[in-house]
Amino acid sequence: MSQFVTYNGIVGFVLEQRRQDLGYDQGQVAKAAGISQPVLSRLEKGKASITIDQLFSISKALNINPSWAIEKAQDHVVTFEKDNGIKVTTSKQSDSTEKNGTQGSSVLAGAAIGAVLTLLLSKK
Fold first, then answer.
1. CA dist., res. 7 & res. 50, Å (int)
2. Between 61 and 124, the higher pLDDT residue
3. What is the CATH number of the domain that holds 99?
4. Domain carrying residue 114
5. pTM for this one?
6. How would you classify residue 19: left for phi > 0, otherwise alpha for psi between -120 and 50, otherwise beta?
7. How many domains does the chain have?
8. pLDDT tens by residue, 58-67
């Protein structure tokens, strides 16, 4: 079974980890970023595509530079791509795969991204 993860999922994971490291709940960050908590939840889980405006607003709420979030995400992309079983793809390609009913494929999102990253990073 092939597994893949989206760039949006990885960026969402990075933002979620930063929020948790700071001890903030989603409601606090969402309010500071000017978005709703359900929207933040979907972004963190990679279930929605993050816009540049949202990235900047959330980054400001988390006291980080948006480029930091992208750089951290890029580090994770490199980690995933080193493992032959996990492909990093765009949300559009992910949607296309799901609509075409590709057998044996699964999208990693949310906590699954963290679990796989932990496993891959522990192998180093």
1. 10
2. 61
3. 1.10.260.40
4. 2-122
5. 0.81
6. alpha
7. 1
8. 999 999 999 9
